[in-house]
Amino acid sequence: MDANLSRGEAPAGGSAYAPAFLDALVGAGLLVPTGVQGLYGRSAVFEAVGDGLNGAITALGADQLAEVLRFPPAMGQRDFETSEYLQSFPQLAGTIHSFCGDERGHRRLLARLQDGEDWTDQQQPSGVVLTPAACYPIYPVMARRGPLPEAGKVVDVLSYCFRHEPSLEPTRMQLFRQREYVCLGSPERIVAFRQLWMERGQQLARALQLPLEVDVANDPFFGRGGKIVADSQREQKLKFELLIPVNDGAPPTACMSFNYHMDHFGALWDIRQADGGVAHTGCVGFGIERLVLALLRHHGLDPARWPSGVRATLGSA
Ligand code: ATP
Ligand code: ZN
């Protein structure tokens, strides 16, 4: 991989390599390129569709009596370490570094810049890490509150998430939004929650008139050991995805995921059920950008001309 690509910048020659769908999105002003792969601005039209989706997801989850929690797209380094993200997905993580030096250090930094040399080794870790999945910040919060209510709990989260996976596919961004409902409680509660949301996810995609399939999936666990974990995740059917064709000549894209973590997060954070047992957790994740892109792909680049049923589902009829 050349140095530009590993930094997530466009390859020399730029858009010549870009797939046609990305070109069309950029041409219509829906996504605004920044010169970094997977890092885009969004137009008002794109954002309005995303807002409509979020509204539809809120309506779908009204009976969940979820606690709404919003966090900025970052979490403390200690909590991030406890999550064991680095054990499973070191390749995706993003850390925030800042200049913490004195004036001499500043002069060194400026000299590096001036000479076109790497200046990033003049930065120090800030103790803050980018959020990798919207549900991560809530586990330490729930653990600190003490045992869960008798019936368990559902939390509604929405966050920009960072994953270092630069790509020319518009569906694979480095910063994107996940809307999630997260359920904490007994194993039976989580299994029923996930079943309900697998049905509701399909119901939403059908209301949006999108072609879909649901399939068992795995997360991209790192390395040779990771393959074993990924195989076991598939065998135990812990993750399902709702897939929609979006990209040119590529397999369908996961636009929603339905996850059962068993007692993984409960044990890491020491989250307890009301009876003192370790809590099980699960989440349903909606990829906001991917769903907007799926709608643009299947109904055209002008949402004003989408079928009336689709517009009604998005609250824009
Ligand atoms: P867990 O919480 O179990 O780690 P998750 O549900 O939070 O998993 P994923 O299943 O990996 O995380 O992602 C959820 C959704 O986020 C995906 O279905 C997809 O729609 C969206 N998504 C994931 N990666 C990207 C990306 N690089 N660009 C855009 N959207 C993405
Ligand atoms: Zn999650």
From TrEMBL:
<dbReference type="InterPro" id="IPR045864">
    <property type="entry name" value="aa-tRNA-synth_II/BPL/LPL"/>
</dbReference>
<dbReference type="InterPro" id="IPR006195">
    <property type="entry name" value="aa-tRNA-synth_II"/>
</dbReference>
<protein>
    <recommendedName>
        <fullName>Aminoacyl-transfer RNA synthetases class-II family profile domain-containing protein</fullName>
    </recommendedName>
</protein>
<feature type="domain" description="Aminoacyl-transfer RNA synthetases class-II family profile">
    <location>
        <begin position="161"/>
        <end position="303"/>
    </location>
</feature>
